[in-house]
């Protein structure tokens, strides 16, 4: 049977944040009894993304954040800055990283490679949420 749940990831400052354990805790009920399936996690925001990458060495997360800042610098002459200088730059970074991840399910567990985990890519300086008010990021998990 399909299963779906909307929940909020904790608020984070700008950077790449490993959120695997939080996601697994929130989705434990939906994963139970699923022998073979598909798991999708979708971020309901335009200035944060989701990706799967290295879950062991935290310097990978710092390097990814540095690389995104180099590829999409805040110093460009952005026009859409209603919520601050990190507004449009955050939207573009989200488009590059993506706002969803899809993973296989096997025997009630998400299938990761040896060193993989789910990252929340937070692109706003002032923390998560509209206007940087620190509400966290709302995501929706779907299991088929």
TrEMBL record:
SUPFAM superfamilies: YjbQ-like (SSF111038). Transmembrane segments: none annotated. It comes from the Eukaryota. Gene3D superfamilies: YjbQ-like. It holds the Pfam family YjbQ. PANTHER family: UNCHARACTERIZED PROTEIN YJBQ-RELATED, UPF0047 PROTEIN C4A8.02C. Belongs to the UPF0047 family. This is Secondary thiamine-phosphate synthase enzyme. The lineage of its organism: Eukaryota, Fungi, Dikarya, Basidiomycota, Agaricomycotina.
């Amino acid at each position: 049977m399909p299963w779906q749940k909307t929940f909020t990831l904790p608020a984070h400052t700008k950077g790449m944040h490993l959120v695997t354990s939080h996601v697994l805790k929130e989705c434990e009920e939906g994963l139970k009894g699923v022998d073979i399936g598909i798991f999708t996690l979708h971020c309901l925001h335009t200035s944060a993304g989701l990706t799967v990458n290295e879950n062991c060495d935290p310097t990978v997360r710092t390097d990814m954040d540095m690389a995104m800042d180099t590829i999409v610098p805040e110093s460009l002459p952005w026009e859409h800055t209603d919520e601050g200088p990190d507004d449009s730059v955050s939207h573009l970074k989200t488009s590059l990283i993506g706002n969803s991840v899809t993973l296989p399910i096997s025997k009630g567990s998400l299938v990761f490679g040896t060193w993989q985990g789910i990252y929340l890519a937070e692109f706003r300086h002032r923390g998560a949420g509209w206007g940087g008010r620190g509400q966290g990021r709302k995501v929706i998990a779907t299991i088929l």
